[in-house]
Design a protein that fits this description.
heterodimer, A: 253 residues, alpha/beta, 6-stranded mixed sheet, 37% helix, 28% strand, B: 426 residues, 10-stranded mixed sheet, 38% strand, globular, binds adenosine-5'-triphosphate, binds magnesium ion
């Protein structure tokens, strides 16, 4: 489904990604772990199309098509979804209006009729219950004044509404209490299917108890330096990153 | 040095003579006072950014004729004024106890004499000089009186239609006299018909007695062949409350001076304003709040959005007089520049002579936030829609506060036209 070859990217002239190679097949769940500042969010943002990052080398294809040629909104319509590490607050745009505009943009792209306000409200209420967010949140500004955990649940709610082919979750588990982690994991598991893939960035192996990955990768210094199965996450949790010959920032925290 | 140009005598030709004597005399006196009025230039402080848009050519000196059927209509109570004169057939004036809406021309001599003494009383004529041309030129006017305790059960729409089928100017004049504890919502919509070069020169005044409460909504939406030179003056006595919602769409010249005098203890005003400009349009809001009595509150929130090569101006003056202890004044102006070619000038002007006051002010000029834009498009929302959502977000809070549903809808429809023109489909 997603194929990344020798991807290099920089921001403000500074190279952050230094040759990433990664193959993700439909139905798979991949986890990316790695120290702070290693480029995990950069990779996520580059895939989603953030123009603040410049791709200097390499290629990315989604089901054979060149992803890097597509505008951000086109990538979303082709099925890329990024749950932001830091969801953006947009006062003045109601969550409901935002979600409906997004869902209708997707429906339009697929040639489906747009949903009217009442139809959408019904759907949005159901999905908000699924992520345990009070429907009252729909009326508030996008992420405006949401707590950290509420923002993350709002991201998962968007994923559930938009039904992406490839969901990239950038630390969606960070800052969640135990119950919220369960809610979010259930949401992610609900997305799992044979024709979808999930790429999760996380620092904690506890998430991987809920969402069992097929592959685990270690991203350090802008490169994937080790890949393995589920057991790699356990090993990292026990031993930190030191044994891989890199600076061990996470373990030191 | 050549002398500064003055107002052309063509603008001071005597208008129609159908008013009671006292009003004719007032008009004449105001005309004489304007005879040598120097026209504003770049060096005129309160016209610094806007003088270049003002085109007082002789072409628009004539008073536009009243004839012609107004296109406009409104739900509920409405007073339709075409070129400043009430069109009775098109209007539906309220029949409510204690409330009267009359033309100046139908007042008795005594009533006219009282009105003549009060006209311009809410305004600093020095500051609004040019808009004061209205006082020399009004053909007729509308006097709205609310007796003590009278309550207008529904909003009154005043539709000002500038009929520019030929070149000239309209001089609508409104005076609202709200006695103690009376209450009303008054909507003024400025529209135009025809395509000739024209001007609306309008003045509206409100006097509020003790505990009176007036909500004013003002929509300036004439077409691009019409300049707008307007002033609103408000005087509040003890515990009176004035709330205003102004929505303005840019044009060749758009100027509105809003002056509020808090004269009685406990009086308060809330002034909201939204302005959008595009192309080569202009809009200039000059507001003044005079805190004269102690224990008064003022709250002012204005937002400008300028696209294309347009130019928006906001000047907010707050003057807290020496005796106005315990004043509470809060002014906030935020501006959004959608293109590099657009210009926004904003200036808070605070003059504070009392020591025990709370006065907050803030003004910012910014652009659309890239991070927010990325967040929206990363959900599949098109760039154009994302731009519209974010731009709307900038003013939504104020548009939502418009207390009359029908006006809110009109404003929203116009704003959405504005966005359609500003953000073309990619
Ligand atoms: N807009 C930017 N301008 C300058 N530097 C940036 C920018 N965005 C990211 N960086 C830098 O790129 C490097 C990688 O950042 P990134 O956010 O991808 O790390 P990360 O692996 O997600 O870290 P964390 O675990 O803390 O979330 C960091 O050194 C960061 O400071
Ligand atoms: Mg990160």
């Amino acid at each position: 489904m997603l194929s990344i070859k020798n991807l290099h990217a920089s921001v403000e002239g500074k190279e952050i990604l230094k040759g990433i190679n990664l193959e993700i097949k439909a139905g798979e769940v991949h986890a990316i772990m790695g120290p702070n500042g290693s480029g995990k969010s950069t990779l996520s943002q580059v895939l989603a199309g953030n123009e603040a990052f410049e791709v200097t080398e390499g290629e990315v294809t989604l089901n054979g098509d060149n992803l890097l040629e597509l505008e951000t909104e086109e990538r979303a319509r082709e099925g890329i979804f990024l749950a932001f590490q830091y969801p953006v607050e947009i006062p003045g745009v109601s969550n409901l209006q935002f979600l409906r505009t997004a869902v209708n943009a997707m429906r339009k792209h697929k040639g489906e009729p747009e949903m009217n306000a009442a139809e959408f409200m019904k759907l949005a209420r159901e999905v908000s219950k699924q992520v345990d967010l009070d429907p009252a949140f729909l009326k508030r500004g996008v992420n405006e004044g949401f707590s950290g955990g509420e923002k993350k649940r709002n991201e998962i709610m968007q994923a559930l509404l938009l039904q992406p082919k490839l969901a990239i979750l950038d630390e969606t588990d960070s800052g969640l209490d135990i119950d919220a982690l369960k809610v979010v994991s259930d949401g992610v598991n609900a997305l799992r299917s044979a024709d979808r893939a999930i790429l999760m960035v996380t620092h904690y192996q506890r998430l991987l108890n809920h969402i069992v990955p097929d592959h685990v990768h270690v991203l350090a210094g802008g490169k994937i330096i080790k890949s393995g199965g589920r057991e790699l996450a356990l090993e990292l949790e026990e031993r930190g990153y030191g044994w891989l010959g890199i600076k061990d920032e996470v373990a030191a925290q | 040095m050549k002398p500064a140009p003055t107002l052309s005598s063509a603008f001071l030709q005597p208008p129609g003579q159908t008013l009671p004597a006292a009003l004719l005399a007032l008009r004449q006196q105001r005309g004489t006072a304007l005879a040598d009025l120097p026209l504003p230039t770049r060096k005129t402080e309160n016209w610094k950014y806007s003088s270049k848009y003002l085109k007082l050519t002789d072409e628009i000196a004539a008073t536009l004729p009243v004839s012609g059927t107004p296109a406009a209509a409104a739900p509920g109570y409405c007073a339709v004024l075409r070129n400043g004169v009430l069109v009775s057939d098109a209007s539906n004036l309220p029949a409510v106890a204690g409330i009267r809406v009359r033309r100046f021309s139908e007042l008795s001599d005594d009533e006219a004499a009282t009105l003549a003494q009060r006209l311009d009383g809410t305004l600093d004529r020095q500051a609004v000089q040019l808009a004061g041309l209205n006082s020399a030129r009004f053909e007729d006017g509308l006097l709205i009186t609310l007796e003590p305790e009278a309550v207008l059960d529904q909003p009154l729409f005043i539709i000002h239609e500038t009929g520019a089928e030929s070149s000239g100017s309209a001089f609508p004049r409104i005076y609202v006299d709200a006695a103690r504890h009376s209450k009303a919502t008054i909507v003024e919509e400025y529209t135009s018909s025809g395509t000739a070069v024209a001007m609306t020169n309008t003045v509206t005044e409100f006097t509020l007695g003790d505990g009176a409460s007036i909500t004013s909504v003002r929509l300036a939406m004439e077409e691009q062949n019409v300049q707008h030179l307007g002033a609103t003056g408000v005087r509040l006595l003890d515990n009176a409350r004035f709330e205003s919602h102004c929505v303005g769409f840019g044009g060749p010249l758009r100027r509105h001076d809003l002056q509020v005098r808090l004269e009685g203890p406990g009086a308060e005003c809330k002034l909201n304003g939204v302005v959008v400009t595009q192309g080569k349009q202009h809009y200039d809001n000059h507001t003044t709040i005079e805190h004269i009595a102690p224990h008064c509150n003022s709250e002012e929130t204005y937002r400008n959005i300028a696209a294309g090569e347009s130019h928006a101006v906001f000047n907010g003056r707050i003057h807290i007089h020496q005796d106005a202890q315990k004043s509470n004044a809060d002014m906030n102006n935020k501006n959004l520049l959608l293109n590099n070619g657009a210009e926004i000038d904003t200036k808070p002007e605070l003059e504070i002579y009392a020591d025990d006051v709370k006065c907050a002010h803030g003004a910012t000029i910014g652009q659309l936030d890239e991070t927010s834009l990325f967040y929206l498009v990363s959900r599949g929302i098109g760039r154009r829609d994302a731009n519209v959502l974010l731009t709307m977000a900038f003013i939504n809070e104020l548009v939502d506060q418009i207390p009359v549903e029908a006006v809110k809808e009109t404003a929203q429809a116009r704003l959405s036209d504005f966005f359609d023109q500003t953000f073309q489909e990619a």
